[in-house]
Every structure is written in structure tokens, then in C-alpha cells.
Amino acid sequence: MEDLSLANDDMRNLLESTDIATLFLDAELKVRRFTAQTTRIIKLIPGDIDRPITDLASDLVYPELAADARAVLQTLVFKETQVTTTDGRWFLMRIMPYRRMDNRIDGVVITFVDITAAKLLEATLRGKQAEQRGGP
């Protein structure tokens, strides 16, 4: 029992140390678990465990989240896309099937990596290129 508890603690610490927002949903797209970073994107509290993702408030400008998660569950093909939030942040979002040790699919894992700085730099560079060409 102590080994299982230690392994669970190791996994929780690993997830939190990556600074990547991670959301685990079960096969019915209900919240199974989430990292603290996720609460900066989706309005989650511990009481939201077992609630459908469609019932939660979010800063994402991405109404296709639930549909895309369902598609990943059906096809087992991961989805990766760039999404934005209402306050202008950008994230690289990846939806992947959640595989159990027995290789059974039991939901999805959604990760959000903040790419806001890269998007701002890209916009700055495009602006400078446009200036050099003499256009907007």
C-alpha cells in the first residue's frame, strides 16, 4: 500500500512540475483529474470531479472541445491545435486517448502548453516584415 501511495505522489509531483495544464476526462467526458495549471484556463474546483466538461466555464475560445474529445475517443487519433482564450493567451492543445495499463481506452487526456510568447513574437515579426515591404 505504501508503494502505491508513493507512486501516486510521484505521478502527482511529476504532473505539477511540468507546468503543463493537464485535464483527464473519463469515457463520458466527465472530469477525472486535473493539474493546478488547468484552473487558469478552465474554471475548475475539486468539486468538479465527475462533472461533464460541457458544464464547466472556460476562458477558451474553442466551442469544439467536447466534440473533438469525442472524436478522439471514437477514432483513437490524437488531435493537436492552437487555441486562444478570451484574454488573448494562446495554447497548444493536444487531446490524446487515455490508455490504461491493460491497453483499454478509458477517456482522454487534454494538455495545454502556453505558447503566448511565441505568438506575440510571431505577430511582431510579421509586423516588421510588412513594414519592410511597405504594406500593412
Summary tags:
Beta-Lactamase; 26% strand; 3 helices; 136 residues; alpha+beta; elongated
Account of the 3D structure:
The structure is a single chain. It contains three helices and five strands, in the order αββαβββα. With 136 residues, the protein is α+β, with helices and mostly antiparallel strands. It has a single domain, classed as Beta-Lactamase (2-Layer Sandwich), CATH 3.30.450. Strand 3 and strand 4 form a beta hairpin.
How many strands, what sense, and barrel or not for the largest sheet?
A: 5 strands, antiparallel
* Quaternary state of the chains: single chain
> In what order do the strands lie side by side in the largest sheet?
2-1-5-4-3
- CATH topology, by name, is Beta-Lactamase
Compute the number of strand runs: 5
The string of secondary-structure elements, in order, is HEEHEEEH
Let me know the average pLDDT: 91
Anisotropy-based shape: elongated
Radius of gyration from the alpha-carbon trace, in angstroms: 18 Å
Helix content: 25-40%
Protein structure class: alpha+beta
Q: What secondary-structure arrangement, pairings included, does this model have?
A:
Elements: H1 2-17, E1 21-25, E2 31-34, H2 65-75, E3 79-84, E4 90-99, E5 105-114, H3 116-133
Antiparallel strand pairs: 1-2, 1-5, 3-4, 4-5
